[in-house]
């Protein structure tokens, strides 16, 4: 695993001091080779022991091991083919901007993949599959989170899985009253702090249903209520870039679950093809 990817994936779980160290390394990776642990500590105004503890917490033997790993990651990136780009009037190539965004999205997707091990993805797919056989899958998301909740609900419906999707907390509370053991509730909430979603999750658990949350890789109230938690790692200093990384990594995560549902069950795949054909016929004049 790349040291830089590991730092990005764990950043949201770090303390304030650890985040300062992580941000410095991510923003100055090319310069890290010139810094000793004491110089890095001095630059950040922290103790040298904080730097050493940071490296050990990430699984490295010490600061030299981390520095070497970061250097390797940079070398691998530099060994890639570098296309000749034509700069625009302001000196910044459009292709370069697009390439940087593509790279950041790829890094966010890789970091998200690393913190959601295969067994977790399989557990989510199995829970949804079992609920689809004998029960229902409830799905809720508020605001922008509903975009992904709605899209995933449609995908499950195409597979023949009965879904109850709602973006209104009052209506979902009423819907949950019909939940029973074996049903699944998928809750989409980027920051996991919405009180109403926490209440709905508690109510669903009282109905002996299984709660699956989809949030950022942070400690949040909603995640503590999850039977299974899917988490997204997407960090960037630019406020207009960070949501793009979150959206990309989240979609990749959901697509992984969807592919498992398609490939693990022939009847689901057949149902998907049949539904797509019906939809195509409806759209034809």
From TrEMBL:
<dbReference type="InterPro" id="IPR000281">
    <property type="entry name" value="HTH_RpiR"/>
</dbReference>
<dbReference type="InterPro" id="IPR035472">
    <property type="entry name" value="RpiR-like_SIS"/>
</dbReference>
<feature type="domain" description="HTH rpiR-type">
    <location>
        <begin position="1"/>
        <end position="77"/>
    </location>
</feature>
<protein>
    <submittedName>
        <fullName>MurR/RpiR family transcriptional regulator</fullName>
    </submittedName>
</protein>
<dbReference type="GO" id="GO:0003700">
    <property type="term" value="F:DNA-binding transcription factor activity"/>
</dbReference>
<dbReference type="Pfam" id="PF01380">
    <property type="entry name" value="SIS"/>
</dbReference>
<dbReference type="InterPro" id="IPR009057">
    <property type="entry name" value="Homeodomain-like_sf"/>
</dbReference>
<keyword id="KW-0804">Transcription</keyword>
<keyword id="KW-0805">Transcription regulation</keyword>
<keyword id="KW-0238">DNA-binding</keyword>
<feature type="domain" description="SIS">
    <location>
        <begin position="124"/>
        <end position="285"/>
    </location>
</feature>
<dbReference type="InterPro" id="IPR046348">
    <property type="entry name" value="SIS_dom_sf"/>
</dbReference>
<dbReference type="GO" id="GO:1901135">
    <property type="term" value="P:carbohydrate derivative metabolic process"/>
</dbReference>
<dbReference type="Pfam" id="PF01418">
    <property type="entry name" value="HTH_6"/>
</dbReference>
<dbReference type="InterPro" id="IPR036388">
    <property type="entry name" value="WH-like_DNA-bd_sf"/>
</dbReference>
<dbReference type="InterPro" id="IPR001347">
    <property type="entry name" value="SIS_dom"/>
</dbReference>
<dbReference type="GO" id="GO:0003677">
    <property type="term" value="F:DNA binding"/>
</dbReference>
<dbReference type="GO" id="GO:0097367">
    <property type="term" value="F:carbohydrate derivative binding"/>
</dbReference>
<dbReference type="InterPro" id="IPR047640">
    <property type="entry name" value="RpiR-like"/>
</dbReference>
């Amino acid at each position: 695993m790349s040291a830089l990817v590991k730092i990005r994936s764990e950043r949201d779980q770090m303390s304030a001091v650890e985040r300062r160290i992580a941000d410095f390394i991510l923003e100055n990776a090319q310069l890290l080779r010139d810094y000793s642990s004491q110089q890095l500590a001095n630059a950040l105004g922290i103790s040298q022991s904080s730097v050493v503890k940071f490296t050990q917490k990430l699984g490295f033997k010490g600061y030299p091991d981390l520095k070497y790993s970061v250097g390797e990651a940079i070398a691998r990136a530099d060994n890639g083919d570098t296309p000749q780009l034509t700069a625009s009037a302001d000196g910044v190539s459009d292709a370069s901007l697009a390439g940087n965004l593509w790279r950041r999205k790829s890094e966010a997707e890789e970091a998200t993949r690393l913190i959601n091990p295969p067994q977790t993805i399989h557990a989510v797919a199995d829970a949804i599959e079992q609920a689809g056989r004998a029960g229902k899958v409830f799905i809720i998301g508020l605001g922008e989170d509903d975009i992904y909740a709605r899209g995933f609900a449609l995908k499950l419906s195409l597979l023949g899985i009965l879904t109850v999707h709602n973006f209104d907390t009052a209506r979902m509370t009423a819907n949950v009253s019909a939940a029973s053991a074996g049903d699944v509730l998928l809750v989409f909430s980027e920051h996991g702090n919405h009180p109403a979603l926490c209440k709905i999750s508690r109510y669903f658990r009282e109905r002996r249903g299984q709660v699956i949350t989809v949030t950022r890789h942070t400690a949040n109230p909603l995640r503590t209520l999850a039977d299974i938690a899917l988490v997204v790692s997407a960090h960037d200093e630019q406020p207009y870039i960070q949501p793009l990384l979150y959206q990309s990594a989240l979609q990749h995560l959901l697509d992984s679950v969807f592919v498992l549902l398609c490939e693990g069950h022939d009847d689901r795949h057949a149902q998907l093809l049949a539904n797509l054909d019906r939809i195509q016929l409806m759209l034809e004049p």
